[in-house]
Amino acid sequence: MNNTFVVGLTGGIGSGKSAATDLFKTHGIDVVDADEVARDVVLPGTTGLQSIVERFGDSVLLSDGTLDRAQLRKLVFTDSTAKNWLNSLLHPLIRERMQQLIADTSSAYCILSVPLLVENKLTTMCNKVVVVDCSESTQLTRAVERDSSDVETIKNIMDAQATREERLNAADYVLDNNSSLLSLEQQVADLHHQLLAQASNTPSS
């Protein structure tokens, strides 16, 4: 049984999740990033990529043999059967890899950074859940600027994610990221000390 104290960290698009994750790293905390894991499980040579090619053909590969994510997205976007198949292939692979990485961490606790932590019911993997929160208008402004995207696209992504209320309901701790990076920095430092205390008081199972 893995005894790592796992702190799930999530937030909607444009909430500042990456900024918060980077701040935890400055305190020497190991981070398991679901986005990185999702890329790892479909690298050339993996069973994940092999299964995708068997299902969709070589059109989902780029010339260097890596997965053409844009092409795959196009194929599954309007086909719910294909999308469900892809999710049922990837989700167990991602979860297994995350558990492996969590077991390998050596800091007092580890951060499990997952954009869809609430939506994919991955809160069950966590001892505590931290939500990076800001107003929806701030999310929209930040995401449009960061991704050089149009408002409609970002709104569609926000609509597909859990609502702000759903995320907050799942939170043990909330990092308010409506103002400055300095404010977020202070909140992370304070929370880090609380989590250190919690992790050291949690008996190994």
Polypeptide structure, described:
This protein has about 200 residues and is of the alpha/beta class. It has two domains: about 1-30 and about 110-205, P-loop containing nucleotide triphosphate hydrolases (Rossmann fold); about 35-105. Helices cover about 55% and strands about 10% of the residues. The protein has nine helices and five strands; from the N terminus they run E-H-E-H-H-H-H-E-E-H-H-H-E-H. A five-stranded parallel beta sheet has the order 2-3-1-4-5, sandwiched between helices. Helix 1 (about 15-25) crosses helix 9 (about 180-200) and helix 6 (about 135-145) packs across helix 7 (about 150-160). The longest helix has 25 residues, at about 80-105. The mean pLDDT is about 95. Catalyzes the phosphorylation of the 3'-hydroxyl group of dephosphocoenzyme A to form coenzyme A. It holds the Pfam family CoaE. GO terms for molecular function: ATP binding; dephospho-CoA kinase activity.
Supply database-style keywords.
alpha/beta; 5 strands
- Average pLDDT over all residues: 93
Reported CATH architecture of the largest domain: 3-Layer(aba) Sandwich
Per the CATH scheme, the topology name of the largest domain is Rossmann fold
**Number of beta strands:** 5
Query: How is the biggest beta sheet arranged?
Result: 5 strands, parallel
The CATH superfamily of the largest domain bears the name P-loop containing nucleotide triphosphate hydrolases
User: How far apart are the termini?
Assistant: 7 Å
Tally of domains: 2
Helix fraction, binned, reads: 40-55%
Which strand order do you get reading across the main beta sheet? 2-3-1-4-5
Structural class: alpha/beta
Described by the principal axes of the CA atoms, the overall outline is globular
The low-pLDDT segments are none
Strand content range: 5-15%
The level-1 CATH class of the largest domain: Alpha Beta
Query: Total number of helical segments?
Result: 9
